[in-house]
Request: fold
Amino acid sequence: MAETVVQPSRSRDLDKLLLRPGNIIGNNFDPGQELRDDLAEYVKVLVVGAGGLGCELLKDLALSGFKNLEVIDMDTIEVTNLNRQFLFRFEDVGKPKAEVAAKRVMERIRGVNIKPHYCRIEEKDIDFYSDFSIIVLGLDSIEARSYINAVACSFLEYDSDDKPRDETIKPLVDGGTEGFKGHARVIIPGVTPCFECTIWLFPPQVKFPLCTLAETPRTAAHCIEYAHLIKWDEVHSGKTFDPDDPEHMKWIYNEAVKRAELFGIPGVTYSLTQGVVKNIIPAIASTNAIVSAACALEALKITTGCSKTLSNYLTYNGAEGLHTKVTEFVRDKDCLVCGPGVLIELETSVTLQKFIDLLEKHPDLLLSKASVTHQGSSLYMQAPPVLEEMTRSNLNLPLFDLMGKTSKGTIHVTGTTSKNDTKTSVLRKLRVFFKGVDGVTDMDMAGGA
Amino acid sequence: MIRLFKVKEKQRELAESANGGAPIKKQSAGELRLHKDISELNLPKSCIISFPNGKDDLMNFEVSIRPDEGYYLGGNFSFSFQVSPIYPHEAPKVKCKTKLYHPNIDLEGNVCLNILREDWKPVLNINTIIYGLYHLFTEPNYEDPLNHDAAAVLRDNPKMFEANVRRAMAGGYVGQTFFTRCM
Reply:
């Protein structure tokens, strides 16, 4: 294996990981030059975000033997990014981050191909995401993480024993930083907890009472939020505030200053205004570098198996001294996003009404008064009356038709279960299979159209 | 996993033309939880919910409240709800669409209700918020003012406050401010 003379790659350190056998390795680790070549040829990585973490990630991944990278980011470069988003120069201000970042890394690292996407993550369809071997996140919002997590989990399929099918697993590596603190985590949908399993990890957002802002401001942040949440609407009726418009931000700042003067409160600055309105915590370049390095290494470990992966959540704190810790979080077995759901097999003729009756008798569910949704459309709602009325006519239709005549699908139901005379309300995920329609669905649809 | 990607790549080349996997509309976790909230709504007759975008957009809806007691008896007040995909991590954004004379609701429709901001918790739900809003009409309070003038009148002269509320609801001026009829 490793004793044969191999051509030294530009990254000797990588070769030490990929060309030699080891002890603490992942499943199916098969060291050798082929592995290194396959990494370059077959692995396609999507980096989400080309900001502070994204710049580091692209550089780290490109230097770790990944050759096919794509990057998606909707932002353009601002002058305040330049201190840490090291791929950008002063003359790049105003240009799309994804495009400039991709270009700069390709200029510096031979043989790497990076395709930029200057758009919102929601603009890409599911096929776009399905194409990648692994997705690495360098994001700053819960919304975006939750979205990508849902996308990755939507590929996941379970077999009839509720075991995840390997070929449907889309691994995620998520990095995040806030000032001197950061985290890196590995999400293997179906195996380790997904983002939604542990959403409770996020502390609640700090929101000031509106009446405090209006009546008794005590801090600079109160004055800024007053201008942002109350004064803006009062003056610009109907016009929505755009935090990315410098004119708008300047207006908020000026109003906040006036308010602060009125109440004798010090400390309103333009950068604090931006910070409060956009919820920004000053970014530290070294935190990004450390978290990104951890993420890139995990991506390499997941794809090549050269070492066991992080299980599954690393926190880093460099505020006072240095502290890192790995915590193994556990999955929420009933997670609506990554969980298997309850498997139900049905005849195509079963109507929605009959299906709802069935749920009441199903031994794993015992769900009465079910409301049913399928991919964002309400099939039947028990309440409120206005929705009950709008969905009532679906009750007599076959569920198969309502679910778009495909052989399988996921639906969600809410209702009540009774155990020992106590009723609890539940929300459950169901995997519905229809008997005898596999493979012929497309033809049927074409014939009927 | 690399072997898996290799196999997949081969399969993809073969299957490329056969069928490009069906695009799936994903439902956010927030949407699912909201669906549960909505299906379990238990509202008094005085509160009516409606869905301007139809049955498949539950994330944006309206609630109209017709208080059956107190200063605001007989009025009809409409609120818009905007629910985020990360609900219930984040509270819904609620605005009052009816211009009204109220100590805790300003003329722009901002509402000062603790559970909408500083006291929001993921265990609360849409039902709780609607009851909270209803409560603002039966028990307006001058201690958390958003409309400073209205709060001062309520505190110092409840009789006059009552008259002002009546005038505003019937359509007319209170001080310099004009209110459209909402009865």
Notes: Chain A touches chain B through 68 residues (CB under 8 Å). The radius of gyration of chain A is 26 Å. Chain A has a mean pLDDT of 90.
